[in-house]
Amino acid sequence: MLSTASILIRSLFAVALVGALLGCSADDLGDEKPISVAVNAESPTWGNGIGELVNKKCANCHMPVSARGDFVPANVPTRTIINIGKESFFDSAGAVQDKGYAMLAYRRIFQDPVNPMPKQFATPFVGDEQLALKKYLETKGFGNQCPDGGSTQLTYSDVQESITSTCALSGCHNSGNTLRKTLDNLDGLRGSWHAAISYLAAGAMPQGTSGFLITTKGAKIFEWLCYGEEFKDLK
Amino acid sequence: MRFFVAAAAFLMFHAGQSRAEVTWEQQAERLQNISATLLDGVPFAEPIAKTRGIEASAAVSFLPKTNPTIGGKSEKVPSSPVHMVPTFKFDHRPSSIFSGNVGYEVWAGYLPSGGEKLVNINAKLTQYLAGSALDYVLALDQGMAIHLPLGVQVSSASVKGAITAKDSNDSFTAATSLFYFAPGIVLPLEAMLGPGESAWFNLLLGSKTTSSDFKIPADGTEFKLKDNRAVAQIAAGVSLARGFEIGAGLLYVPERLMMPRLRVGYHFAF
Fold it and tell me: Which of A15, A28, A34 is facing B5, going by the closest CB pair?
């Protein structure tokens, strides 16, 4: 007959063993899904979901450095963070720089298969969120800046001089200026392709000019940027 | 007995719960905190020996599979499937107070760089820990005894190497301080095994603070986190007459992990 101590010992070991076996599981936060925002994909507005969506899935990274906590993604360009969490940022009658950023946001989210937003580590869009945001930006006039079906015979050599004299002036986007994106060579233009189209379309670049796109030089550069063979692999 | 079973059931139930929708920040924070918790090295708090001595031991933790998702991406977790820090301990029971004995123990553990194989990442882990405990031992009838140890342990772990990308030079450090109370009971095994042999069972309840720091130089990023958590561990073991110690336990850190652990030691009395 087993003693009380023996029964107790065996029971305790049984509890420990069962616990140990059941303990071989994943951590308990393994099944969560990306946070979702209720949006209206038919008629999206800032108030019915877009504002919350932009703040939760864009502005939480694209916020001023001073407002960030310990957990921040790296290399968020400061120029894309200004006011993105506010409705005024997406006001088509607002500042031309913000219009350029909003157009760039559209391109990076919907037209950039190479390096799309949100980034891989960021909270992904789910459900109708992307559809609603696309419609919202298009309604605001920030949609596709290069109409579908267009084409061009222009090549880099046809526009090189125009770009250099307009964008890559000394002190601006030339190779000697380490503070600005380089636009005096094809690699630099390819690296800033989405931004170049967006800022030109918004009238944010060249700085201090207006109506550049309706000039012969501006129209030629824009046409080449939109449809040039040199950018086919970026689409 | 019922209490211990209920405690075990409670821990298992809560470990299986899932969470609601999360942002990438919450996932990244979770992963960093879990990575730090995997390197805690919580002691077994086995009862202090009757005789003064030095003990060499190693606690093996069977690390749980961790969900590595951050946003839409899978990150690397600086951990291994089995983890162990070799530890030396000195213990002594010098004095009697009321109807019991008071003993103390101090220990230190060190895992040198390269002594650990990490999974999926090319990095080196260095880890050390140190602790001490005061144990009040109350003798009962038939050779049984109740142990009431109060202890503290500090530990530090550092992982350096290619964690986030193949050629990166990242570093992850985690420093933990733990205060615990681990009431337990010792039962003689003389009738079952032989003279001088005993079994023990305890429930460790503690509070720990972990500070972790994850640096990704390539991105110019540093993530610092401080994590305060309760800790619970149920453990049982046997002390054999020749000095060998064997134990098993289940560690639970709420919202972080639950994992089984084994401990093997040899107590050299002098």
Answer: A15
